[in-house]
Amino acid sequence: MADAPNERPQPEPSRLSRPVDNSGAARRLLREARKAALGTLMPDGAPFVSVVALALEPWGHPIILISRLAVHTRNLARDPRASLLVDGTGDTGNLQDGGRLSLIGELTPAGAGTHRERYLSRHPDAALYVDFPDFCFHVMTVSRAHYVGGFGRIADLEPAALFPDPSACAAVASAERDLLDTILAAPGVADRLVARVLGDAMTADGSWRVAGVDAAGLDLVSPSRAVRLDFDAPLATPERVRAEIARLISRN
Known about the structure:
Helices cover 28% and strands 31% of the residues. By secondary structure, the protein is α+β, with helices and mostly antiparallel strands.
C-alpha cells in the first residue's frame, strides 16, 4: 500500500503581509487612552516631558486640564508647540508588540464649555479641582501623527485620518447629554455594551458606565480602564445614534 503523501502544514501568512488599518487602530488607541505623556519646550529649547490625564472632544481632539503653576503650562504659554504620546503597550511583555501614537501640534487654552463636561465624564475625580482659578483647559490642534502598531508596523498619519470634520459630528455632539441621561443611563446598559467589546461576561460587574457618545461610537469606562465601541459607520443624526444604541442593547 502506497504511503500517503507527506502533507506539510502551511504556515500562516505573516502578520506583516496582512492588510492593516493603521488609521482605525490609531483612532481606537486614542479613544481608549486615559493619560498621555506631554512634551513641551523649555525657554532654552530643551524638551520637557510630563504626564497628563486625557479626554477628547466629540471629534477626537485631545483635551487636557492643567495648572498655570505647572512647568508644562508655563512652557505652553511661551510656545504652544507640543507633542502627546499615547502608550498602548500595557503589559505586553515585549514593548515592540504594543501600539503607540505620537501627536504633534499646538496646545492652546480653551474655555470650559463642553470641555468641562467631557473631561469630568472621563475623569470624575477632577471635580475636586476643575474650578480652581489656576486650572485651565487646553485643546490640541494636531498637525501630524506617527503611529506604531507593533514591530514593523509604522505609519505617518494626516489629521484627516484621525479626526472627522467637526461639522459632520455637530448634531450628535449637541445631543450627547440627552443620550447619556436617557437611553444610556438605564441599569445594565453599560455592562451589556462593554461585553460586546471585551467578549467576557466577567467584565459585567456593574462598574462600567458610558462616558461619551459621538457620531462614530461610544466611550465606556470603569475605574481602571476605558474601551471604545465603534458603530459600523458614522451616524449623522441623534435619531440614528439612538436607534443604533437600541439595536446594540437588544442584540443577544
